[in-house]
Structures are given as structure tokens and as C-alpha cells.
Amino acid sequence: MGGYLRPTALAEALVALAAGVAQGRPRVIVAGATDHYPARVGRVADEEILDISGLPGMREIRWTEVGWRIPAGATWTDLAEAPLPPLFDGFKRAARAVGGVAVQNRGTVVGNICNASPAADAMPNLLALDALVELVSVRGVRRLPVGAFVTGNRSTLRVPDELVTGVLIPPLGADDEAVSSAFLKLGSRAHLVISIVMVAAVLRRDARGRITDARLAVGACSPVAQRLALLEAELVGRLAAPGLGALVRPAHLAPLSPIDDVRGSAAYRFEAAEVLVRRALEELVA
Predict the structure, then answer these.
(1) CATH number, domain at 198?
(2) What angle do CA 195, 196, 198 make, to 5 degrees?
(3) Per-residue model confidence (pLDDT) at position 1
């Protein structure tokens, strides 16, 4: 039988993580545990669990001196209900489509990243938001771009004595610029489904309606969600007007490497991704 610890202070949690590594029994970190426990049904519970749901200050999504902060305990419902600017509209739409209401109330945004599923709903949104992941240990603090933090299927750069304490979203746009965001998800039904394709998009426009910044990310079509850098570069300087989606070409999706599985073929995923990218752009300029 494994152990269970629910610390009430960050320092206590970090010491426990370091001690687990030193003893050769690294602790498994959980918050909502909506992925952890269902995946272990029928297995012996012999892990050393560190439950961070009791840590103070880990729920409130707030503005800081470096941008918006989504702490490790913030749930999908917290995100959906937070008073956030239009930059987050797409991410909030994703929050309302994750699992069912019970999962949204319990599951955390940071947990979704750390779980590192290729179909993690948070990843394309955070890539499009240029998010940073904050990791803390007894050795100090480091921050990594979310695209660098997740390295593959169920794989991240977190080392066993580190705790992801939150993600940081830098501000985007000046007072005279408009920012909009979108999120589209294709699945076999609206909820309680693993995505076949996801697209997150963010556009920034100047006072003349010209695009000054474009970010598009596709999830569930590669081991890690991918930004479409070539398309982003071609969009900058163009007028944000209906018909923008017609610019999208198969070559823009070159970073993707979809697979065949029970949810869809690689060819279907590739075609669906192209369609969703077009739709996302048209939604943003409608």
C-alpha cells in the first residue's frame, strides 16, 4: 500500500517531493486526480501520492506583474467563470467542453498539461497564448515555454522533485489593438470524448484592421500540439476580413503528424485540421 500526503503549505510539499526522490520513492502529484485514479482501476495502489489540493492560493486566476496566472489548483470551471479579457475566449470555450460538469469542477488546467496527452485540450490554447510553465522545487524556480515543457506523449521536462505551480500568460496588444481568440474541437460528440482534432487561434489587429500577430495551434494531430508558424507569418499584415480562411493550404499543416486510430485515420485528421483552421480564422474576423 502506498502513502498519501496532503500538505497545507508549499514548502511542506516541496520538502516531501525532495525526500521522495532521495528515498527512491518519487511522489505522484495529484490535484483533481480525474486522470490519475480512473487509469488505475483494478491496479494495486502502491504509489506515494502528494495531493496539492490543500495548498493555499492555488485556485484564483489573477493578473500579476508578468501577466495572467493560472495556478496549479485552478479547475476548468474556475477558468470558464473567471472575468478574463477576450484573449481567453477560446480557452474558456475549451474549458466548457472538457469532459462533463463533474470533470470540469474537479479537473485542473495544470493537471491537463502535466498529463501530457496528445489530445490535451489545454495545450493548443496555451501554445496560442505563448504560455510559460512555472516549476518550483527546493532548488528554486524555473519557467519554460509550454511548447518546450511537453516533450511527447505523457512526457514533460518536469523532474521528480519539482511541482508545477502554475502557468503564466503574458499580455498581448496595446490599447489601440483588438485581440480575439477561438477554439474549435472535433469529436464524436460534444462532451465526454477524446478530441480527434482541436484548433486554437489568437489574432491581434491594429486600428486599421491589419493583423499584427497571429497564433494558430493544432492538437490531437501530433504527439505534442503544434503551432502553424508558416501560416502565422503569412497572416501578419493582412486585413482581418471575411475570406481570410481561404489562405489556408495543406503546406501550412506540415508540422502535423497525425496517426490512424479508432477515432479517425491520419488522412481524415489532416483534412479536418485544415477545415477547422479555416473555420477558426473566419470566426475571428466575422
Answers:
(1) 3.30.390.50
(2) 70
(3) 61
